[in-house]
């Protein structure tokens, strides 16, 4: 579980005959139900009275450093209409990220910042490995995609001030994000020193950010401003609001740069695929170099199929619920007081849904069967508050990389 949770889930599924019935594992003394079929997962989501998600949220909040006092205030029904802070934030999140004026404003800012990050002069720092000539730079694709997307997303949500108060925020966040699994598994500080130090630096940056005058943070997105207003309304101190901002920072950043990295990696290894996607996306660029996101989404089926296949293969989200009432899901009785985990990658590798070659990378899989993207077996980024808001823009960056630069692997 500590080294490769998906391998453990696969072993358990096959050990019990690959029936995809719910089974149980014991990890560090805790008994966990594991659901690997789309039918069971859908039943769990629909059975809201038998399962509690707030308990899972609380566990995550506690791991990040949200105190019991803060959580008590967040669950007080003092917002009218019998709602607590978690309900309100969920509504704010949906309004920001669903189609409408607020999403258009955020997307416009995000895309402008991506364009700036893809300038030639920005190819510097840790990503730059060497510069053989004036028109050739050797860069780390992983560090390049990380810096472009995380810088653009972070400043789009929090404004430029977040990097002003800590110019090393991207470096600190990368250390944390790489080792965040240790926090989720409740490693003690002495066993995860680098991760906890990076976390503390990021949270300290948000405390300094919140201490700035509001007028210096006016370019923060509507979502961020409303989180701050809601926290102040509950009398929650800035150090706890800083933790909440850090949670949001990870939520918006942890998946997108990885998806972009794997996309570029596949394209660099497949010249024919690269040429096909270049031809398909070329009309999306205007004469002045601006890219139409609408064209990419509506008129580039190969790009979109390729991208969906990348995230199907490379993302490992896990849904979780606490069982509060006994319930039968499929042929299994689930008992209260235990957690049920839903490792979505187990569904993504199901050959009954994705074909006999489900274990292979097939860039045309979703092109040949468009209904797969709406399948209940396909949940690459979770749902609700667990959905990654920046991920849908990563495919734009892929196109921009090829449009702006001539990219090739260096020979070794």
Globally, the shape reads: globular
What's the helix count?
20
Q: In CATH terms, what is the fold-level topology? A: Cytochrome p450
Average pLDDT: 89
Helix coverage percent = 40-55%
Structural class: alpha+beta
Q: State the name of the first-level CATH class.
A: Mainly Alpha
The major sheet is characterized as: 5 strands, mixed
Radius of gyration: 22 Å
H and E order: HEEHEHHHHEEHHHHHHHHHHEEEEHHHH
Straight-line N-to-C gap? 35 Å
Number of domains: 1
Share of β-strand residues: 5-15%
Classified in CATH, the superfamily is Cytochrome P450
Question: What can be said about this structure in brief?
Answer:
This protein is an alpha+beta fold.
What does this structure look like?
- The structure is a single chain.
- By secondary structure, the protein is an alpha+beta fold.
- It has a single domain, classed as Cytochrome P450 (Cytochrome p450, Orthogonal Bundle).
- The protein has 20 helices and nine strands.
- The chain has helices at 5-15, 38-46, 54-64, 68-74, 85-97, 101-117, 141-158, 161-165, 169-184, 193-211, 222-233, 238-253, 256-269, 271-281, 293-299, 301-314, 344-348, 351-354, 365-368, 394-404, and strands spanning 23-27, 30-34, 51-52, 128-133, 136-139, 318-323, 327-329, 332-334, 339-343.
- A five-stranded mixed β-sheet has the order 1-2-9-6-3, sandwiched between helices. A two-stranded antiparallel ribbon has the order 4-5. A two-stranded antiparallel sheet has the order 7-8.
- The longest helix has 19 residues, at 193-211.
